[in-house]
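Predict the 3D structure for this chain.
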Amino acid sequence: MNINRLDRIAIAGVGLLGGSIGHALRAAGFAGTRVGIGRRASSLEAAVACDAVDEVTLDVEAGVRGAGLVVLCTPLGQMEQMFRRIAPVLKPGTYVTDVGSTKAGVVRMAQRLLPPKVRFVGSHPMAGSEKTGVEFARADLFDRALCIVTPTARTPSAHVRWMRGFWESMGATTTVLDPRKHDVLLARVSHLPHAVATALVHLSKDGAIDVAGPGFADATRIASGDPDMWTDILRTNRAAMIRSIDRLVAELNRLRSKLDRDDADALRQWLAAGKQVRDEWIALRYRKKVLPP
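Done. Predicted structure below.
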C-alpha cells in the first residue's frame, strides 16, 4: 500500500488521535491534502496551526467528498450519525475506517449504512493517553503501537491488507480480530482496567488519597481520561464489561479467601503467577517493539 496514491485523506475529529494521524501521514511522506473535519472552529484552527492538517471544514459532507480515505475519529456515540452523513457523498472505492475502542456495533452500522462500493475496515489503534486535544498530538504516537484491524467474513482480504498497510506506514504493528472477539478481549485488558482505576479513586475519597504515593498514581493514571468518551465505550461494550466485572469479582474473592486463611504460600503463588505473566508480556512486547521503552 502506497499512501501517495491518494490525493486526499479526510480525518473526522482532529484531537489527539486524529491530529497524530495527520502528523504521522506527513512524517511518512504523504504528499496529498490532509483535510480536518470538526465541530468547533477553534479546534480546527489549532489543528492547522500545528500542521496536523492542511485544510479544515465544519461541513462533514464537504470534507469527505473526493477523499480516497476517510478516518473517523469521532466519539462512538456520534458514529451512526457520521455514517449517515458521509454515505451519500463518498465516491466508489473510498476506504473508510474508524479508531473506536469498541468494534462490533461500529462494524454493524458501517455494513448497514455505507454503500456497498465503499471499502470499510474497522480499526483500533492501541495508542493515546488520558490527554485529549490536538495540542498533544504527535507524529510518533503510533510507532511500535499495536493496531487491531477488525474485518468480518464479508470483508475482501485485499481491503484488509490495504488497511493494515495504512497503519503500518505510520509505524504501527497490526493484527486482525473479529469485531466481537475484539470487544470481549478489550473489555478485559482496556475497558475494565479503566473502570478499576476509577473505582480505586472512589475508594480513596475518604482521605486516603492524601497519603497516596507513586504506586497509586501509576495504577490510576487512566482514570483521568475523558468521562464522555469512556461512557460511550462502557455502554457500547456493556455485555462484555459485565462478564469481565464478574470475572474480576471472582478473582478478588479468591484473593480474599487466601487472606482469610492467612495462607502465605497461596498469596505468594498468586502474586508470583501474576508477576510472571506480566513480565513475559512486557518482554514479548519489547522484543516485537510494540511497546515504547
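The chain has a mean pLDDT of 94.
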